[in-house]
Design goal:
alpha/beta; TIM Barrel; Alpha-Beta Plaits; 2 domains; 9-stranded mixed β-sheet
Length: about 300
């Protein structure tokens, strides 16, 4: 039985595709975007997050940890990740729910049981299922199994992807996807590598190939002040998007700071602590440039 690692299943989602949707978040991503608002999605392993504001300093986790990975220093309980084996004992004993496991191994049938219960909402609203992450293609066998199971139930499918995979993988996946949400971080190869840790060569080629095959694609462009929001960068995106033979529209995703607390909970440094959110004027200016390329542009999205 095919199984994979899920870190969340979000019911009644209204921003992840048409209609009311169930969004399944798969864990693991080959990109390490500096601005990622779901840092818990990047690792392909189960993790423990610590919500210090909930901790009542009862000491139960210290006594329970079989590896001695937890220590109290200056009234703060810290975790030595070199000793922790993610056994979860500290999570089970935490009365205040300050420690939580992120990631759960689930089979295709278990995930589908969650999805099928929402079919009445899909039918009433024209919704369906969105597979997001992380990067769903990172668990391609599991993703394919889920997509095929959804199609057996005649459920509309959206794949939210950065497109970083081999074309062979996408070739297997694409027949089962009704709509692609395709993230395009930036066109410049050097900058893409600096801010995500990977090349964008396959990302751009895969996007072109999907478009050539006539798939429904919504291009999603994050706007990061001082990083990819200058006119030259936006013109490059506009020219590339306009060259695609088939594209439904471009969604502009303004940068936000909602996920910053997650970095503290995972004890991960955040690389852009001073990055501001883009102004409405900047978002409107970006939309205007892209529109001049003849693209359909949506600049009312909740952000990235």
């Amino acid at each position: 039985m095919t199984s994979g690692l899920i870190f969340d299943i979000h019911k009644y989602a209204i921003h992840d595709g048409p209609g009311i949707r169930t969004t399944v978040f798969l864990k693991g991503c080959p990109l390490k975007c500096w601005w990622c608002h779901n840092p818990e999605s990047q690792s392909s392993c189960i993790q423990i997050i610590y919500r210090q504001e909930r901790c009542i300093r009862c000491g139960s986790c210290l006594e329970t940890c079989p590896q001695g990975a937890l220590q109290e220093k200056q009234n703060v309980i810290t975790l030595d990740e070199r000793l922790c084996d993610i056994c979860g004992d500290c999570v089970k004993i935490c009365y205040a729910d300050a420690r939580q496991l992120v990631g759960k191994e689930m089979s295709t049938s278990q995930v589908m049981a969650e999805i099928i219960s929402d079919i009445p909402f899909f039918d009433q609203s024209g919704g369906g299922v969105t597979f997001s992450g992380g990067e769903p293609l990172f668990q391609s066998d599991f993703l394919l199994s889920l997509l095929q199971a959804c199609k057996e139930q005649d459920i509309h499918t959206v794949l939210d992807t950065c497109g970083f995979s081999s074309w062979e993988t996408l070739e297997l996946i694409r027949p089962w996807v009704d709509l692609f949400y395709y993230d395009l971080k930036m066109i410049d190869a050097k900058e893409h590598y600096i801010f995500t840790g990977v090349s964008n060569q396959n990302i751009l080629v895969n996007l072109q190939r999907l478009s050539q095959h006539g798939h429904h694609i919504i291009l999603r462009l994050p706007i990061l002040p001082g990083i990819n929001d200058d006119e030259k960068s936006i013109f490059k995106v506009g020219a590339f998007a306009a060259s695609l033979p088939h594209l439904d529209r471009v969604d502009i995703l303004p940068y936000h700071r909602i996920g910053l607390d997650k970095y503290d909970r995972l004890n991960i440094p955040y690389k852009l602590p001073d990055l501001p959110q883009p102004s409405d004027d900047k978002i409107n200016a970006v939309a205007q440039i892209l529109s001049e390329f003849g693209l359909t542009v949506n600049n009312n999205h909740s952000g990235v």
